Each structure stands twice: as C-alpha cells, then as structure tokens.
C-alpha cells in the first residue's frame, strides 16, 4: 500500500533481501500498544480484542462495496444482504471494538490524504519547474527569431500550468502566458494574443501590489493587438492607459513612455486629429 501511494513511502522501503523492516517494526509496535491497552484482561481476552478489531476493520470494506453495489444497482439483493450481515457483525463485535475500528479507519484516511496531498504538491512543483524551463527556452527561441519553436515551447509550458489549482496563478504561469501572447501577436494570431494578454493583465492588476511597468507593458501590447485588428479607438484608449501606468512607475521620460506617446500621435494622426498629434509629439 505504501508503494501504491496510500501510506507514506518510508513504509515501502525494504532491505536488500526484500524485508520491509520499518513497516514490520511499526505494525509490531502498534500491536503491542493494543495489548498494553488491555493488559488488565487475560491473554485470551487480549487475543479476542485484537481479532475483533481486525474483523471490524475489514467490515468497512464490505460496507463500502455493498453501498457501491446498491448505488450502481448491481446485485442489489446480495448487496442488501451483505450490508445487513455487516451491521450484524458490528453489533456482535461490540461497542469498544467498533469504536477502535472507526478510529483506525479515520487515522488511515487522514494518513492517506496527507500522502496524496504531498505527492500532488510534489508533482505540481515539478510541473512548475518544467514550465519555467520551457519559458526560458521559448524566450531564447523568440529572441533567435524562431517563432514556431517559441510557440511550441510556450504552449507546452501553458499546458503544464493548465491544471493549476484555483487561486492566484503562479508567477511562472503568468510569465508563460504573457510570452505566448507576444509570440501569437508576432505570428498574427490577434484573437489568441488578445485572450492571453488580457488574462495576464487581469492577474497583474489584481495583485496586492501591482507593478506599474508590468501593467503598462501589457496594456501597450494589447494596444498593438487592437491596432493590428483595425480597432484604432480601442488601441488609442489602451495606449493612453499604458502611458499613465508608465508615469506611475516613474517612467515619464523612459523609452517606453516616449514610445507610447509616439503611437498615440500616429493614431491621432490616422484619425485626422492633426492638432492633437502635434501636441503629443
């Protein structure tokens, strides 16, 4: 069961000849604990108590199987008879043995859940590490001008992040979505680029302490998407918002800020606003 991931992996380790030493030691210690718990009774009473606990622990499996059969309507009559027999066996085992069986079942369930959660978290961390490596590889391919390879790497990174749990997305996933959106923009896939960049922008704005320059760059790239789609009014609005966020980040005279003002001038001139374009330039 430890090798199947139900119990901690340490219980599945064996010696060179295949002896599960730790599992045997812990099971023996628990058996001794039960014996000490009933030290006041005779040896026969202690043996009977241990047997009853073992029987009760097994009965839970029969109950689960019978309930499942009834729910699936498979052999309903036999399932009902099995459920009735399990109830009779619980009654025959007595209150003390039944309560001990419930306690053991609860402890095993909690241990199994912790093991599964730990395994899931380990797998998630490995997936995020792989996604980060794919992001770096995709960025290198993009810098080299290989858009197809960059798209493949970043799409694979996004697939690894697709099953992330609810809540704030990991930073590596946001970086990957952002980079993929830029690649899609260069490839001319404006619809996908718009979806990816808007989703990343939503997370960037929703952060407890948003980084102004990051938000500004995302707005600028979304504006380029709108401009490529011929939506000059939408691009104009996004460029203006980008310029405001650059100003918040202390980038009033930065190259990015100048670029935003230049794009605004181009858009204003394209719309026939020559006077506004002159003032911006």
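Sequence proposed for the structure above (281 residues):
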């Amino acid at each position: 069961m430890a090798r199947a991931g139900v119990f901690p992996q340490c219980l599945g380790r064996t010696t060179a000849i295949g002896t599960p030493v730790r599992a045997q030691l812990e099971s023996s210690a628990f058996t001794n604990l039960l014996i000490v718990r009933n030290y006041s009774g005779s040896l026969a009473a202690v043996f009977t108590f241990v047997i009853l606990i073992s029987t009760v622990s097994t009965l839970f499996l029969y109950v689960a199987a019978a309930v499942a059969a009834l729910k699936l309507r498979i052999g309903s009559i036999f399932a009902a008879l099995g459920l009735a027999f399990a109830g009779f066996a619980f009654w025959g085992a007595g209150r003390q043995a039944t309560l001990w069986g419930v306690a053991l079942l609860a402890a095993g369930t909690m241990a199994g859940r912790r093991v599964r959660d730990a395994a899931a978290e380990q797998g998630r961390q490995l997936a995020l590490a792989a996604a980060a490596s794919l992001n770096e590889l995709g960025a290198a391919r993009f810098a080299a001008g290989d858009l197809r390879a960059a798209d493949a790497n970043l799409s694979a990174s996004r697939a690894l992040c697709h099953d992330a749990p609810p809540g704030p997305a990991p930073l590596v996933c946001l970086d990957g979505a952002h980079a993929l959106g830029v690649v899609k923009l260069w490839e001319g896939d404006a619809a996908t680029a718009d979806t990816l960049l808007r989703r990343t922008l939503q997370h960037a704005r929703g952060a407890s302490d948003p980084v102004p320059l990051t938000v500004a760059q995302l707005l600028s790239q979304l504006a380029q998407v709108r401009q490529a789609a011929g939506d000059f009014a939408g691009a104009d609005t996004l460029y203006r918002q980008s310029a405001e966020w650059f100003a918040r980040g202390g980038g009033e005279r930065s190259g990015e800020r100048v670029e935003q003002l230049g794009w605004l001038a181009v858009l204003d001139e394209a719309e026939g606003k020559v006077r506004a374009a002159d003032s911006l330039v």
